[in-house]
Amino acid sequence: MLIRIFPELGHFALILAFAMAVLQAVVPLWGAATRRPLWMAFAQPMAWGQFTFLILSYLSLTASFALDDFSVAYVANNSNSLLPWYYKLSAVWGSHEGSVLLWVLILSGWSFAVSVFSRHLPRDMLARVLGVMGWISSGFLLFILLTSNPFERLLPDVPADGADLNPLLQDFGLIVHPPMLYMGYVGFSVVFAFAMAALLGGRLDSAWTRWARPWTNVAWAFLTVGIALGSWWAYYELGWGGWWFWDPVENASLLPWLAGTALIHSLAVTEKRGTFKNWTVLLAIFTFSLSLLGTFLVRSGVLTSVHAFANDPSRGTFILVLLGVTVGLSLAIFALRAPKVQSLAGFGWLSRDSLLLINNILLVVMTVTVLLGTIYPLLLDGLGLGKISVGPPYFNALFVPLTALLCLFMGLGPLARWKRMPGRELARRLAVSAIVAVVTAAVLPLFYGGSFSLGVTLGWLLALWLVLSLVRDVFDKTRHGRSDKARKGRTRLAGFRKLTLAYWGMVLGHLGLAVTIVGVAMVSHYNVERNVRLAPGGSVDVGGYQFAMTGLRERRGPNYTADTATIEVTRPGRSSFTMQPEKRFYVASGMPLSDVALRPGLFGDLYVALGEKLDNGDWSLRIQLKPFVRWLWLGALMMAAGGILAVIDRRYRRAPRRSAALQTHEPMPSRLVPPSPTEVTS
Amino acid sequence: MKRRLLLLIPLLLFAVLVVFLYRGLAKDPAARDSALLARDFPAFSLTTLGDPSRMLDRSLLEGQVTLVNVWGEWCPTCKQEMPQLLALADHGVRLVGVDYKDTRENGRRFLDEFGNPFEVSLFDPDGTLGFDLGVYGAPESFLVDADGVIRYHHTGYITPQDVDDVILPEVKKWQQ
Amino acid sequence: MAAMTRWLMLICLLPIVVLSGAAALAAIEVQDFDDPALIQRYEDLTSRLRCPKCQNESIGASNSPIAADMRARVAALLRDGQSDRQIENAMVSRFGDYALYDPRLDTRTWLLWGLPFGLVVIGACVVAAFVLRRRRLEDRESGIDGLDEHERRRLEALTSRHDAGSQARRNDGEAP
């Protein structure tokens, strides 16, 4: 009996959550505008209630999956009684409806977190932030309720069993990848809400950036991990060893990441120097807008659908309306309320300010490039100019030089001082790093690959340049009075202690990029790939390894059958090991899937995928050597860890006291009309 | 004032983007015009389905407007398409079939079972003509004018509605 | 068909996914060339040509029949001694510009290729404008406006010598 009621329970909780989201959207903002404390105080309980009911709703859907309630259409389409239990739980976000529910749940989770951790904020600021998030939440909840209800029933003809979860999703990577990605996407709504609250409250000082920075870092770190997981998953699950395809759906996740990276840096400038205020607000809007745009591109089918897939046009239209209203309104408010006068702080050619400006410009150019490449076919088609494709060659051709340019300045950034940095001093401090980087990078490919390779040299050059300039910076910063040689050791240690976590976060993040760049350069240039035929008993040499197929057997999994090959891999002078690539056939969905055998290593993977059984009884196999491929994801994890490290800096934990002092001041009057030009310029 | 206008630029760019995205929603990203429109029908030299010794070439398509239909016994939608093709033949449209990646036996059985609207069917077991036509899934139809130039391309199967709304008007247009 | 549609639907909705319309299997196929340079060119070409039938896959990665046909044709043309450009043209003439992942520069695509470069140039101008305007401001702030170039350089040298010592203290913790 209880089983029957779960979907209705979940649906009802969803409706209640929607009602609360609307209240959270309307009441606190109105309260802030008319300065009624009681109304403003409405925000927190509504955020909590909304979160509670969404958890309830989400658990109800999970229960329907766990209990194999195939009367629920979504469960019937995405699960099967034979599916292992852990995949039943992750199947909740295996398709559109459930994943939007997860999206909204995470959004309300972020709202909840803001309401808990930001109690020290001025009352009107918090009310506005939660109000803005309430609007976003209401929009998406309405979207679910009207077009994508996961609790829809298949009555009275309840299927006997479900159609099964897509085999590609029956995998650990896909259990963790979407939640991480959504944490990132949705997390950018917090900094967006802060920016909007600052605009609405006419409070565009640097205070909001200080409050928003930790949230932005955390969201960015999640997105970084999410993208890395997606790449890793594609690498081992799709069977051909690629790790980035420049597919529109991937680009959709890269766009907010690039903009978010720019945002993290511009928030720093605005907080430290009070400059670039409008730009930072605009970037905050852009970053979240790109998250929304990504959601639209992925779910509307404008870019990736094939004609076999009849997309529900109402969904695409609904998200487009959501996107249009959210972004349109925020950009309109920006145009009306952004202060016309920028603060006047000067800086020289070489200064941390100018380098961060360059960083922002380059990251925005990269963002625009990816966006342009992704939607250009759509633009041309919209103009009736025919269909073209924009793929990896385009993106690689533009991304490599832009990244190189970015890294060049990135090496200078941490060493430069705010306002002004004498070029001669910078050159003196970096000369050694530059020379070492150039020489090492030029020589390295000769040793590794036996011949010179421009791509590898470029990759190592950039990476070494980043690393060595950081090393130099740490070295300089931990140095105290040079004359005091006797106490050198101790002062060095003291110097290390004095460096803040935020600084180490920066170092780790930048090192992460260097590691990723090495990974990209090495795996792109030294990748070895051979497609071979093998029969049991046969063997083949690839890249110094001998691969011998010693056996082939059939196997039954919980919801699939499989042909498993046993490959014995030997290398002269090393002990041998076996790899077992598999070709599966999923019974319920009738889909084949190649389960790759991987031998991971820090300096390279062996990658074997089993292909088809050929006419003469041989099997086709794809054997690949992937040098340094792990560095791609290792670097991404380092970047994410850097972002988190910066957040746990004492500076942010000190925040409550400081803003308590702020709070004693009368909050600035909030106005709904834009300030008149004379007011601003005076 | 000038500065305020500057601040409006992002909004304007976004508005343009939304217009394109909206238009994109209504379009099918997989629907593409053939690259061969307004070009000569590719040269070929193939036997017919019925007679392995009879070779035909491009001159087959000269002199009158012809609808070339690429089909195969293995293709389920081709079966659904046959009644419409028969109706077109009844309307006096000249039809030429291309039996694509098929065996003679299966192809002949298919026509016996579902009717034969074609004046002649070319036999293309390796898919060479299909490849030159840029066919990536049967059925596909090409309307060729009296000079042997491809004038219209239909991907997917021709529905009963398409017969009256699209195919017959196109045929009429190029017959004049 | 229903399972297929559902599957395609899933694919479209996934957060990160890139796949074929046909099967979740990458193409694993053995092509032999005598000349190792041809292997490289073959791999390069098959990764730059797009499978017309699939969602978003190169012909080298796709398992669909049309991709296999196209690969075979690429291999044949390579053995024939044709240039990359000729082979690309052969594909474009059949499947349209859609088949190229690397869009050619023409009137339709100059914006695509040009905008990133244009933006870098504009960005450089923005940086220059900022620094020039702001340096004047800073000079006014610090009261060195009246100095000539020689005096200013001396001042810079003096302050930088001073800064070097206190720089560690000033700079730490200012992570962006």
Q: Tell me the structural class of chain B.
A: alpha/beta
As for the CATH topology of the largest domain in chain C, it is: Helicase, Ruva Protein, domain 3
**What is the CATH T-level topology of chain B?**
Glutaredoxin
Order of secondary-structure elements of chain C: HHHHHH
Strand order of the largest sheet of chain B: 5-4-3-6-7
CATH domain class name of the largest domain in chain C: Mainly Alpha
The greatest interface here is:
A-C, 124 and 80 residues
**What CATH architecture of the largest domain in chain C would you give?**
Orthogonal Bundle
Features:
heterotrimer, B: 176 residues, alpha/beta, Glutaredoxin, two-stranded antiparallel sheet, 7 strands, 41% helix, C: 176 residues, mainly alpha, Helicase, Ruva Protein, domain 3, 2 domains, 6 helices, 0% strand, elongated, disordered N terminus, disordered C terminus
SSE order and pairing:
The complex is a heterotrimer of chains A (682), B (176) and C (176).
Chain A: H1 2-34, H2 37-40, H3 43-66, H4 73-78, H5 85-90, H6 96-117, H7 123-147, H8 172-200, H9 207-237, H10 248-273, H11 277-300, H12 313-337, H13 352-382, H14 392-412, H15 423-449, H16 454-477, H17 488-498, H18 501-526, E1 528-534, E2 539-542, E3 545-556, E4 560-570, E5 577-579, E6 582-586, E7 591-595, E8 597-599, E9 605-613, E10 619-626, H19 629-647, H20 650-653, H21 655-664, H22 677-681
Antiparallel strand pairs in A: 1-10, 2-3, 3-4, 4-5, 4-6, 6-7, 8-9, 9-10
Chain B: H1 2-26, E1 45-47, E2 55-57, E3 66-71, H2 76-90, E4 94-100, H3 104-114, E5 120-124, H4 128-132, E6 140-144, E7 150-155, H5 160-175
Parallel strand pairs in B: 3-4, 4-5
Antiparallel strand pairs in B: 1-2, 3-6, 6-7
Chain C: H1 2-13, H2 36-48, H3 65-79, H4 84-95, H5 110-142, H6 149-171
Helix pairs in contact in C: 2-3
